[in-house]
Structure formats: C-alpha cells, structure tokens
Automatic annotation (TrEMBL):
Region spans: Disordered: 179-207
Domain of life: Bacteria
SUPFAM superfamilies xrefs: SGNH hydrolase
Protein known as: Uncharacterized protein
Comp. bias (Basic residues): 179-190
Length: 346
C-alpha cells in the first residue's frame, strides 16, 4: 500500500520515529518532552530535547550552545518545533534567524503537543540557562481549543493536556490497588479495569457549542498570557494565532487534499479527528481570533491573526501544509516572513 504521507512528505517518517510513544520522556511538572540527543538528517535535539535552530553561520539551543548576547524566543507547540520541516534549517526559528529577522538569535522554544500552561512551565524550568531575552513571540492557540473538547473528567482544575487519558487511567489504577490494600484484601494477580466513567464525564465535545469551547480555550490562554507578562521582564511579548489549514482557506492545494484524505481514512488523529467538524471551520477560527485580539488589547500586547494574513500572501493552489496544522518548508518560510513584517522584527 502506497502511503501518500511518505511519498509527498518523506520527512514525516522521521517525525513518526521521533514521536514513538514507547520512547516518550516523562518529566516532572511538564508531563513529557521531546527525546533528547536525537540526531538525524531531518531533526536534531540537544541534551534537554530542544530543537536546534540555525542562523547564517551559527546554531543554538537552550540545552546546547547559547549565544553570549540577548536572544529571542519563538514559543509554541509543534508548529514552532517544526513538525513537517525537512531539516532544522527550515523551521520557523531558523528562518527568522537566518533570513527574515537575523539581527538577534532565535531559540526554538517549541514543545510538541503542548498547551499554553506547559509552554509557560517550559520557560520557568529553563530560564536560568538563558541570557537576556529581548523578544518573546507566542505562536500558539490551536491546542488549547482542541483540548477543550476532551471529556470533562480530563479537564481537572487547570485544563486538559495531550495524553492525559493515559495519566488518569494509570493513577486511577494505582488508587484502586491502594484502596483494596487498605481494606485488607489480597492483592489480585490480574489487572481489573477501573470503574467506567459516567457518560457526561467521558463524552467528547463533538456536538458542543463552539462558543463555549472558544470561551474556555480563551480563558486558559488569557491565564497564561498574564503569566508571560509577569515573567517577561523587559522583553516584549507578542501573541500570534497560529495558522490552521482550514482557517486559512476553504479549499486545500492538491497535495494537501491528498494528505488530508489519507489522514482521515487512517483515523489516527485522536481528539483532533473527533473535533474537526466543530473547531476547524473558518467561522470558529475568526471568532476565536476576535476573542483573543480583545484579550491581548486589554494587556497592551501585540496580536496577529496569521490566518487571513497567510491567505492574502499566498495562491490558492500553493502547497503550505503537510497536514492541517503543520507547515511545509515553503509554508514556514512565508510564515516567518509574515511574522517579521507584522511584528516589525529585524
């Protein structure tokens, strides 16, 4: 069977290997982070799992070589990490540093599958490694919206995170065993399933009100925007709503459509697959941008919705995406140029 994912975007085979769930690094507070010291022709990480970014004639990363001068941080989830890029030089941070805003080094502060709270924690846990931070660009927003659709039992007090079902199942099993031990029961030799949650606790939000999902995602985002403002010191913090394929344009380029159709047939997208019809419509993207724009205005924070900006800057048949959330090399270069222009970066 020919897999278009590997025919049209052969680099994705390397990302699939990198994202092997059997190799996940579970970390305190963050829950998980990238594989450390991963080396290949497509992507490379340092001793902490940060992806290496490249300027014209130098490279840097948080857990590797650090420039001896102020830096800029590009913060976000997998679009910032650079899923889809054919090599480290093609990520957004590298394109900014090497081509579109090269006056100050850029560090790749992307955390694959991270929500906005994990993005903040990533800085808290590694701030002592960094020099002065001149600029922080938050290119994010979509994952928070996806996570609002997970079952209520997964939301907790601070919002859901990706793979939280595994965490909850394991902790529930641990609690079950301890309750049995406390009652003096003999330890069972086989695992029994935890009690099934009630339907209202375990039902995804496939029929949920989009306005409710937007409000919840915006609330989480605003909480963490305030945290960024407190942590920034003298650095300017800007929020950029990441471009999602179906928010950018109604019709995909031919290569994109082939990949999207294959992904749908394979049904490997988890929560995104379930929520696609709810959160990826252009109307939801525009409404979400309106709410976040107002939130940033209250905080005197620069805001850019890249979706209409990217649509205006490209042709309808231009191949921008390897899937609905991740960019091709050309897409990354265009987005980096638009970021530099809209945020007046040099």
């Amino acid at each position: 069977m020919t897999v278009q994912r590997y025919v049209l975007t052969p680099q994705m085979r390397q990302y699939d290997d990198f994202d092997d769930r059997a190799q996940v690094r579970y970390l305190p507070y963050l829950m998980y982070f990238h594989r450390a010291n991963y080396h290949s022709e497509v992507l490379n990480t340092d001793r902490l799992g940060f992806r290496i970014s490249h300027g014209v004639d130098e490279s840097a990363s948080t857990g590797g070589r650090i420039p001896d001068r102020p830096v800029r941080l590009l913060v976000g989830s997998s679009i910032v990490f650079g899923v889809g890029a054919t090599n480290d030089h093609a990520t957004l941070a590298s394109r900014l540093w090497s081509r579109h805003a090269p006056s100050v080094p850029w560090l790749n502060f992307g955390g694959r599958s991270y929500n906005s709270l994990q993005e903040v924690l990533l800085l808290l846990l590694h701030r002592e490694l960094l020099p002065e931070i001149e600029e922080i660009v938050l290119l994010t927003g979509f994952n928070n919206l996806v996570l609002t659709g997970l079952p209520p039992r997964m939301q907790g007090d601070h919002g859901a995170f990706f793979y939280c079902g595994e965490y909850l199942d394991q902790t529930e099993e641990l609690l079950r065993r301890r309750r049995e031990q406390k009652k003096g029961r003999a330890k069972r030799s086989h695992k029994t399933d935890p009690p099934a949650p009630t339907p209202d606790q375990d039902s995804p939000a496939t029929t949920a009100d989009p306005e409710r999902l937007i409000a919840q995602a915006a609330a989480w985002t605003c909480r963490d925007l305030d945290n960024w403002c407190r942590l920034a010191g003298g650095a300017r913090v800007s929020f950029v709503l990441q471009p999602v394929a179906t928010w950018v344009r109604d019709r995909a380029a031919p290569q994109e459509q082939a990949l999207f159709d294959e992904y749908d047939d394979m049904a490997r997208l988890g929560a995104f697959q379930d929520l696609r019809g709810v959160i990826t419509t252009p109307e939801v993207g525009r409404r979400y941008a309106e709410v976040l724009r107002a939130a940033c205005a209250k905080r005197s924070m620069p805001f850019v919705d890249l979706n209409p900006v990217l649509a205006d800057a490209t042709k309808p048949d231009q191949w921008l995406y390897v899937d609905r959330a991740h960019l091709t090399d050309e897409g990354s270069d265009i987005v980096a140029r638009l970021l530099a222009d809209r945020l007046s970066l040099t």
